[in-house]
Write a sequence for this structure.
């Protein structure tokens, strides 16, 4: 009797190719206003911190000056927005010439919109830059709803670049002559 032995040998190879792989980077930008009201007696009356809308004109200006190298001014000014907050509307298309959803409040004794001074970003935290506190000396009774950042110092002016604007989270604030508003603006770049 004869026996037959059979064996099978098989090799298998698998390979995977990932096409279209790429590195991507993106960043977001946001800003925050911090406002502290000091009464005529030197005591803190209230404080509020609120995010802002960086408008299209501000984003275009930032990109044009940084990436395209167009002329740039490092001088910025803060302004106040009148209430009531219930009817205050901010839009990405707002400019200093056209912002139909809000008005500027000029009830302060400063001759112009106060200039802000930004600190420097650091290597330890290069994504954050903030202003020192900017003061408004209130010289009448007024209702304030928020703040804005612009390149023009003229109180009530309609020229310059509007960078951002926003209203208080706590609603409108009634101010009296002798009050001081200290406003700080913080700008942050962040990864998504």
């Amino acid at each position: 009797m004869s026996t037959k032995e059979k064996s099978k040998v098989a090799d298998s190879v698998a390979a995977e190719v990932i096409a279209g792989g790429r590195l991507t980077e993106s960043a977001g930008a946001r800003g925050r206003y911090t406002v502290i009201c000091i009464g005529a007696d030197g005591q803190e009356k209230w404080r509020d911190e609120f995010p802002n809308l960086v408008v299209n004109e501000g984003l275009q200006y930032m990109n044009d000056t940084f990436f395209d190298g167009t002329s740039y001014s490092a001088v910025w000014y803060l302004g106040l927005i009148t209430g009531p907050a219930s009817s205050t509307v901010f839009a990405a298309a707002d400019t200093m010439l056209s912002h139909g959803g809000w008005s500027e409040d000029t009830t302060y004794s400063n001759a112009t919109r106060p200039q802000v001074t930004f600190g420097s970003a650091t290597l330890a935290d290069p994504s954050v830059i903030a202003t020192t506190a900017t003061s408004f000396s209130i010289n009448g009774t007024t209702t304030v709803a928020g703040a804005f950042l612009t390149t023009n110092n003229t109180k009530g002016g309609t020229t310059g670049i509007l960078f951002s604007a926003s209203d208080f989270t706590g609603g409108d604030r009634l101010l009296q002559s002798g009050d001081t508003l200290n406003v700080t603006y913080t700008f942050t770049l962040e990864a998504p």
